[in-house]
Design goal:
By secondary structure, this protein is of the alpha+beta class. Helices cover 26% and strands 37% of the residues. The strands form two sheets. The protein has a ten-stranded antiparallel sheet. Strands 1-5 form a two-stranded antiparallel ribbon. Helix 3 packs across helix 4. The longest helix has 29 residues. About 10% of the residues have low confidence.
Protein backbone atom coordinates (compact mmCIF):
# COMPACT_ATOMS: atom_id res chain seq x y z
CA UNK A 1 0.00 0.00 0.00
CA UNK A 2 2.89 2.34 0.85
CA UNK A 3 4.40 1.76 -2.59
CA UNK A 4 1.11 2.65 -4.29
CA UNK A 5 0.77 5.85 -2.24
CA UNK A 6 4.38 6.80 -3.00
CA UNK A 7 3.87 6.27 -6.75
CA UNK A 8 0.66 8.32 -6.73
CA UNK A 9 2.27 11.15 -4.75
CA UNK A 10 5.29 11.23 -7.09
CA UNK A 11 3.03 11.30 -10.14
CA UNK A 12 0.99 14.17 -8.64
CA UNK A 13 4.11 16.25 -7.92
CA UNK A 14 5.53 15.63 -11.42
CA UNK A 15 2.21 16.59 -13.07
CA UNK A 16 2.04 19.78 -10.99
CA UNK A 17 5.58 20.80 -11.95
CA UNK A 18 4.94 20.17 -15.65
CA UNK A 19 1.73 22.19 -15.44
CA UNK A 20 3.51 25.12 -13.74
CA UNK A 21 6.27 25.13 -16.34
CA UNK A 22 3.70 25.10 -19.16
CA UNK A 23 1.80 28.03 -17.63
CA UNK A 24 5.07 29.92 -17.12
CA UNK A 25 6.03 29.32 -20.78
CA UNK A 26 2.62 30.55 -21.98
CA UNK A 27 2.92 33.72 -19.87
CA UNK A 28 6.34 34.46 -21.38
CA UNK A 29 5.00 33.89 -24.90
CA UNK A 30 2.09 36.26 -24.26
CA UNK A 31 4.29 39.03 -22.84
CA UNK A 32 4.35 42.00 -25.26
CA UNK A 33 7.76 42.80 -26.74
CA UNK A 34 9.18 46.14 -25.74
CA UNK A 35 10.03 48.20 -28.83
CA UNK A 36 13.52 49.68 -28.86
CA UNK A 37 13.27 53.40 -29.59
CA UNK A 38 16.38 54.84 -31.19
CA UNK A 39 17.21 58.21 -29.70
CA UNK A 40 18.13 60.97 -32.13
CA UNK A 41 19.53 64.42 -31.54
CA UNK A 42 17.29 67.47 -32.05
CA UNK A 43 19.25 68.41 -35.18
CA UNK A 44 20.28 65.77 -37.72
CA UNK A 45 21.72 66.21 -41.21
CA UNK A 46 20.45 62.77 -42.14
CA UNK A 47 16.82 63.86 -41.79
CA UNK A 48 17.32 67.47 -42.95
CA UNK A 49 16.80 68.71 -46.52
CA UNK A 50 20.09 69.74 -48.15
CA UNK A 51 20.67 71.46 -51.49
CA UNK A 52 24.07 71.87 -53.14
CA UNK A 53 24.33 74.24 -56.06
CA UNK A 54 27.31 75.31 -58.15
CA UNK A 55 28.06 77.89 -60.83
CA UNK A 56 30.82 77.27 -63.37
CA UNK A 57 31.88 79.80 -66.00
CA UNK A 58 32.60 79.70 -69.74
CA UNK A 59 33.86 82.17 -72.44
CA UNK A 60 36.08 85.17 -71.72
CA UNK A 61 32.90 87.06 -70.76
CA UNK A 62 32.50 84.61 -67.86
CA UNK A 63 29.03 83.35 -68.71
CA UNK A 64 27.60 81.35 -65.77
CA UNK A 65 26.51 77.71 -66.05
CA UNK A 66 24.45 76.56 -63.08
CA UNK A 67 23.97 73.08 -61.72
CA UNK A 68 23.21 71.05 -58.62
CA UNK A 69 24.17 67.78 -56.97
CA UNK A 70 20.97 65.88 -56.31
CA UNK A 71 22.35 63.61 -53.61
CA UNK A 72 24.52 64.02 -50.52
CA UNK A 73 25.35 61.28 -48.03
CA UNK A 74 26.39 61.96 -44.44
CA UNK A 75 29.01 59.34 -43.62
CA UNK A 76 29.94 60.42 -40.09
CA UNK A 77 28.58 62.79 -37.44
CA UNK A 78 25.88 65.24 -38.51
CA UNK A 79 23.90 65.28 -35.25
CA UNK A 80 23.81 67.67 -32.32
CA UNK A 81 21.88 69.72 -29.81
CA UNK A 82 22.23 72.74 -32.08
CA UNK A 83 22.69 73.42 -35.80
CA UNK A 84 26.33 74.36 -35.27
CA UNK A 85 26.96 71.14 -33.39
CA UNK A 86 25.29 69.09 -36.14
CA UNK A 87 27.35 70.76 -38.89
CA UNK A 88 30.70 70.87 -37.10
CA UNK A 89 32.68 67.69 -37.78
CA UNK A 90 30.15 66.21 -40.21
CA UNK A 91 31.66 64.12 -43.00
CA UNK A 92 29.97 63.83 -46.39
CA UNK A 93 30.02 62.01 -49.72
CA UNK A 94 28.61 63.58 -52.91
CA UNK A 95 28.23 61.11 -55.84
CA UNK A 96 29.20 62.56 -59.24
CA UNK A 97 26.30 60.58 -60.72
CA UNK A 98 23.95 63.06 -59.03
CA UNK A 99 25.23 66.04 -61.03
CA UNK A 100 22.43 67.88 -62.86
CA UNK A 101 22.59 70.97 -65.12
CA UNK A 102 19.21 70.55 -66.88
CA UNK A 103 21.04 69.49 -70.05
CA UNK A 104 21.68 65.77 -70.53
CA UNK A 105 24.48 66.32 -73.04
CA UNK A 106 26.25 68.75 -70.74
CA UNK A 107 25.80 66.40 -67.76
CA UNK A 108 27.49 63.58 -69.68
CA UNK A 109 30.39 65.78 -70.79
CA UNK A 110 31.10 67.08 -67.27
CA UNK A 111 30.99 63.59 -65.78
CA UNK A 112 33.11 62.01 -68.51
CA UNK A 113 35.54 64.72 -69.66
CA UNK A 114 35.93 66.63 -66.37
CA UNK A 115 35.48 64.36 -63.37
CA UNK A 116 36.20 61.30 -65.52
CA UNK A 117 39.81 62.33 -66.20
CA UNK A 118 40.53 62.91 -62.50
CA UNK A 119 41.97 60.19 -60.28
CA UNK A 120 39.48 58.16 -58.23
CA UNK A 121 36.77 60.81 -58.37
CA UNK A 122 33.45 58.98 -58.53
CA UNK A 123 32.38 61.17 -55.61
CA UNK A 124 33.43 64.29 -53.73
CA UNK A 125 34.14 63.81 -50.05
CA UNK A 126 34.97 66.07 -47.15
CA UNK A 127 34.66 67.10 -43.53
CA UNK A 128 33.14 70.35 -42.28
CA UNK A 129 34.66 72.46 -39.50
CA UNK A 130 33.12 75.66 -38.13
CA UNK A 131 35.86 78.05 -37.00
CA UNK A 132 33.55 80.72 -35.54
CA UNK A 133 30.02 82.12 -36.00
CA UNK A 134 30.48 82.98 -39.68
CA UNK A 135 33.54 81.19 -41.12
CA UNK A 136 34.32 77.52 -41.63
CA UNK A 137 36.50 75.19 -43.67
CA UNK A 138 35.91 71.96 -45.55
CA UNK A 139 38.66 69.36 -45.88
CA UNK A 140 37.60 68.70 -49.47
CA UNK A 141 38.88 65.67 -51.40
CA UNK A 142 38.90 65.55 -55.20
CA UNK A 143 41.36 64.15 -57.76
CA UNK A 144 43.12 62.20 -54.98
CA UNK A 145 43.98 65.47 -53.22
CA UNK A 146 42.60 66.89 -49.98
CA UNK A 147 42.68 70.64 -49.65
CA UNK A 148 41.10 73.08 -47.19
CA UNK A 149 38.24 75.02 -48.74
CA UNK A 150 37.25 78.10 -46.67
CA UNK A 151 33.60 79.15 -46.69
CA UNK A 152 31.29 81.70 -45.11
CA UNK A 153 28.03 80.64 -43.51
CA UNK A 154 24.87 81.94 -41.84
CA UNK A 155 22.22 80.35 -39.64
CA UNK A 156 18.72 81.78 -39.98
CA UNK A 157 16.17 79.94 -37.87
CA UNK A 158 16.51 76.30 -38.89
CA UNK A 159 18.34 77.06 -42.15
CA UNK A 160 22.12 76.72 -42.52
CA UNK A 161 23.56 78.37 -45.65
CA UNK A 162 27.14 78.46 -46.92
CA UNK A 163 28.98 80.02 -49.88
CA UNK A 164 32.49 79.68 -51.26
CA UNK A 165 34.59 79.98 -54.42
CA UNK A 166 36.64 76.94 -55.41
CA UNK A 167 39.72 77.18 -57.61
CA UNK A 168 39.96 73.82 -59.39
CA UNK A 169 43.71 74.29 -59.99
CA UNK A 170 44.35 73.89 -56.24
CA UNK A 171 43.29 70.26 -56.59
CA UNK A 172 45.81 69.70 -59.42
CA UNK A 173 42.92 69.41 -61.86
CA UNK A 174 43.94 71.85 -64.60
CA UNK A 175 44.06 68.91 -67.01
CA UNK A 176 40.39 68.23 -66.23
CA UNK A 177 39.49 71.86 -67.02
CA UNK A 178 41.48 71.68 -70.28
CA UNK A 179 39.84 68.37 -71.19
CA UNK A 180 36.36 69.83 -70.77
CA UNK A 181 37.32 72.94 -72.73
CA UNK A 182 38.51 70.83 -75.69
CA UNK A 183 35.28 68.85 -75.98
CA UNK A 184 33.20 72.02 -75.45
CA UNK A 185 35.38 74.30 -77.60
CA UNK A 186 32.60 75.76 -79.73
CA UNK A 187 30.12 76.04 -76.88
CA UNK A 188 32.70 77.81 -74.71
CA UNK A 189 33.67 80.33 -77.39
CA UNK A 190 32.37 83.88 -77.05
CA UNK A 191 32.05 86.80 -79.45
CA UNK A 192 35.82 87.16 -79.50
CA UNK A 193 36.19 83.61 -80.82
CA UNK A 194 38.25 82.53 -77.78
CA UNK A 195 37.24 79.29 -76.09
CA UNK A 196 37.64 79.39 -72.32
CA UNK A 197 36.59 77.27 -69.35
CA UNK A 198 37.25 78.96 -66.02
CA UNK A 199 38.90 77.18 -63.10
CA UNK A 200 36.70 79.06 -60.64
CA UNK A 201 33.50 77.45 -59.44
CA UNK A 202 31.10 79.13 -57.03
CA UNK A 203 29.44 76.79 -54.54
CA UNK A 204 26.33 77.54 -52.51
CA UNK A 205 24.64 75.06 -50.23
CA UNK A 206 21.79 75.16 -47.76
CA UNK A 207 20.32 72.78 -45.22
CA UNK A 208 16.85 73.07 -43.71
CA UNK A 209 16.49 71.16 -40.45
CA UNK A 210 13.19 69.65 -39.32
Amino acid sequence: MKKILTILFTAFISTSMISCKSEEKKEKQNEPETATVEKTAPYSLKTAESNIGFTAYKTTAKVPVNGIFKKIEITKGGEGESIKEAINGAEFNIPISGLETKDNGRNLKIRKFFFGVMENTVSLTGKLTLDNDSIGTADFTMNNKTQKLPFRYTINGKIFSMKTIMNIDEWNAKNAVDSLNVVCKDLHSGEDGVSKTWSEVAINASTTFN
